[in-house]
Amino acid sequence: xxxxxxxxxxxxxxxxxxxxxxxxxxxxxxxxxxxxxxxxxxxxxxxxxxxxxxxxxxxxxxxxxxxxxxxxxxxxxxxxxxxxxxxxxxxxxxxxxxxxxxxxxxxxxxxxxxxxxxxxxxxxxxxxxxxxxxxxxxxxxxxxxxxxxxxxxxxxxxxxxxxxxxxxxxxxxxxxx
Length: 177
Description:
Blueprint (H helix, E strand, L loop, with lengths): L8 H13 L29 E8 L9 E7 L3 H13 L8 H11 L5 E9 L3 E2 L4 E2 H12 L31
Antiparallel strand pairs: 1-2, 1-3, 4-5
């Protein structure tokens, strides 16, 4: 097999860029695909992408327990992120996935019957290759830094590295395409 039979580096990079830069099209502009519309966790906006969200964790005992808040982000649809949260609420082996699930399981062990209410705080853009900045991560850090009343987010989130940049690196390039 000679070098003339294989793809050159430019062809690999062009193929990778084409795959990454391909616009994702949503043929229908639906905002919710819940089967029972009145049980949507985001009040009809569960398909929203690139959002900063707030989860308010409360118990039935509202007199003694004050609700706590958790601020999170998702670059994909909220519905996908919500399913991961549900997994960590239903299975104790995933308790340490987020600070929200840790607190949820602490309340559950104390027989307090926790409930979670969700809302969108901000809609923003994701990672920008031109500036190498992620508006999603920056806005989440801003929300955590300014909303510190009854917040259960860990402070280490303020100094964490953006996890969305990995999607745009050549290290993840698949040569099988």
